[in-house]
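Sat 14:20. Reprocessing the chain from the morning session after the first attempt stalled halfway. Input below, unchanged.
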Amino acid sequence: MLDSQAPTFRRSARLQSQKVSEILAIGARAAELRSEGHPVIVLGAGEPDFPTPDNVIEAAHRAALNGRTTYTPLAGTPELRAAVAEKFKRENGIVYTPSEVIITAGAKQVIFNAFMATLDPGDEVVIPAPYWTTYSAMVDICGGVPVKVTTSADTGFKITPAQLEAAITPKTRWLMLNSPSNPTGAAYGIEETRAILAVLERHPAVWLLSDEIYEHIVYDDFACVSPAALSPAIRQRTLIVNGVSKAYAMTGWRLGYGAGPEALIKAMTVVQSQSTSNACSISQAAALAALTGPQEVLAERRDSFRARRDLVVSAINAMPGLSCRVPEGAFYAFASCEGVLGAQTPEGRILESDREFCSWILETTHVAMVPGAAFGLSPYFRISYATSTDEIEEAMGRLARACDTLVLPV
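Finished this time. Tokens:
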């Protein structure tokens, strides 16, 4: 007779502290409200609203028709690895060989492969906060210790050399830099980057993971320079993370790439061999077309994002209790809601945190935003302006009208 009791499921210890992203939870609640007939506007997704360029789709179609549907080499097709190396030479002034490049199923896998290949239990990774939530989670899952260094609007949400120096210990293995940043849109200028590299030069055991996925989305003549291009010594212990998802609107194609010392890339390839194996063959053909084809689309879309940024920042700064610095890049605004904490809503509710503020806005105005707490820094909220101007204007109007109803603390 079979035991009628259901078996007990036990999570591994590495997952005990992990849960589904708060961003996804907010998206799920927004979908519920929409299914109930509410006119929800989601300003939470880190995804361009533009279509994938036609030449990229055509290249993928040709690849499928020509039978490019089989396994590829683990680290990527020779053609794409060479194209990535050429991209770094052309756009960033950094010379890599194809053997120093790995192609992955999204940029996220570059980071995961690197941590799995390098972190031993107790190894530390310095992460400036606010940060993309996956950074900390991946360090935890791979057995490392995330060392979160809180930044502020006063420093442009960027880690200072003094903060970095204080955070480094004998256990530090990596510093993570994301420039331009998710969630703040902050980007490190050349001199700011040199100052960070000067600290790393004094600590030769610390490697640099430079997430440059938003490099093509910068504004106001900002010069986006890769740290690996500024210091030959640091280049030898830098992993650059990038991909085609943001610049070329290819999020669903799941195609990322990394570049770094060959020994690191080989170790990351071993990890990949025991997880996903090669990235999708069709996506690799598409990425090849993106990197080697016409690039005019990048400037066109950047101009559109800049106009949306200006609309969002101007609107927020006109609202009582809210404020927002002007981001240098990406398609996010990271706004402070400190001025509305302690405020009373028309329903008599007291807003005591950024999570409560965002929840109230979602439930009453049906605009979905992500609280700064999800990114490790309160009291802020993130707005993604990777949506249409009409939706942004409507959302900002709803947000302004909601804030006008608050009784602000004296």
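The radius of gyration is 22 Å.
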